[in-house]
Amino acid sequence: MALTKPRIVALVQVTVAAGYYLGMVSGGSGRLLWHTLLGSTLVAAGTNALNQVHEADVDALMQRTRHRPIPAGRLSRRAASAFAWAVGLAGVLYLLLVVSATVAALAAGTLVSYVFLYTPLKRRTSLATLVGAVPGALPVVGGWAAARGSLGTGAWILFALLFLWQLPHFFALAWIYREDYASAGLKMVGRGDAVGHRTFRQATGYAAALFSVALLPAVAGMAGNLYGLGALALSSWMFWAAASAAQHPSIPSARRLFRVSVAYLPGILLLMMADKLP
Predict the structure, then answer these.
(1) What domains sit in the chain, N to C, each tagged with a CATH number?
(2) Model pLDDT for residues 80-131, shown as the tens digit of each residue
(3) Is the Cβ–Cβ distance between 158 and 141 less than 8 Å?
(4) Within 13 Å, how many C-alpha atoms sit on residue 42's CB side?
(5) How many Cβ atoms from other residues are within 10 Å of residue 46's Cβ?
(6) In this predicted model, what pLDDT tens digit does every residue of 43-66 receive, in sequence order?
(7) Which of 186, 234, 148 is nearest to 59 (CA)?
């Protein structure tokens, strides 16, 4: 269970369900949603487990991760790898057979890009965070595709929203744990930025971009005026938290930005779902 990173799996389940609801044209099928969630959960669990297999040596060097199953010696890398591949591939196959080829392809893309692009790039460049935001934003697209049967403008608006949301969120986390990451040789955002101005200026830029993208569902007819007002308020809050951290970088301001980002995502998705237009 610890190998699958349950909190991240839960976030995937939330975004898949939100994407499914927002993609429904009329009625929708509870059974199809269940199948989509089950397959997506298996893929997310396998992806997270493979990430721990590939980063076991790095995890052993960091205070925050050294008690994970593999570096702590509770599980062998071989057993973890077998479990991870079995679960991940079972999820992709399940989605292919029961939901659709499009959703299965999106799930497979999530696994491949996270494990074979984002994970190794963390050792080479801070741009890995941008790459990692792609698989993080694909589950909501998978939910939409499962409900709608195809992709479209709405799916890519949701992708952009999730992609941009992750950046201030992870920039804050990376700066807080910058010394831990550096000790393990990971070139994350925040590395070499002891003061924090550079990291949080970037976070502010992405928060500004998120501000614009968050209003697109109202412009595109996906949601109504209530959503538009709520998105304006939530995005202003996120921008303020990022800009404040850029002006006065500190661990408390970074933690505040992280907490605001944690509240932002369920808030924006719930607003969109509550004010979804036919």
Answers:
(1) 1-151 (1.10.357.140), 153-278 (1.20.120)
(2) 999 999 999 999 999 999 999 999 999 999 999 999 999 999 888 888 899 9
(3) yes
(4) 20
(5) 25
(6) 999 999 999 999 999 889 888 889
(7) 186
